[in-house]
Target: SRCR domain-containing protein
Amino acid sequence: WGLICGDEWTLLEAAVICRQLGLGFAEAAAQTDYFGGNSADIVTTGVKCNGKEDEISQCFHHDWRSRKNESIFCPGTGRSFAAVICTNRLPDLVPDAREIERSAYLEDKLLVSLQCAMEENCLATSAYRLQDTNPYNWHMESRRLLRFTARIVNTGNADFRPAIPKHLWQFHACHMHFHSMEVFAVFDILDKTGRKVAEGHKASFCLEDNECIVKHENIYACANFGNQGISVGCADIYRANIDC
Model:
């Protein structure tokens, strides 16, 4: 028994720990000495999991420390130990990959017609670089958009809610809705070698129960400054024709 170095410790590793201990799901993956211990108690480092393992020993890791006086390098201050907070209730947001494949298409569009999307931080970072480097004619630049419907289903056992309090949500006149989250989902396009060639993200000018299973009440709706979130068994859907 001993500590694990907290360097690059993520929710994927924490999820395996919670599963191994029978404590449900990982709510947080901390790098801290809050719970005590010292660097001499570290038994391994470099732990990397895919999140599906049944126990931590099945994950990649450096050799276990075999002798008490054997040193293990742990980057940082030497007080960064892996810790987890587990919970038995958690939302689980799952993108509908088949809906992305079914709905995807390409569209060329001038930035002048995407000004609302730019104001609401919906476009990739390269679009804003065009605006900075060409301040007079940027609006006549053309963007090639990969459009698709993003259907995100909550298959967990707790509702998903924005972390920002409601009174801090930002109102945008373009869509006449409040933003509850700056970025809700990130999408990358990779080439066949795994290199990222384009990026995009789904902002959250509206997060609501668009589609629910039979006999399930829609709880969250954006209209009239309503509460935002995704109920258990419901899906938030952004259609392909929405600029954001």
User: Anything to note?
Assistant: The first helix runs from residue 11 to 20. Residues 177 and 224 are 8 Å apart (CA to CA). The mean pLDDT is 87. The chain is about 15% helix and 30% strand.
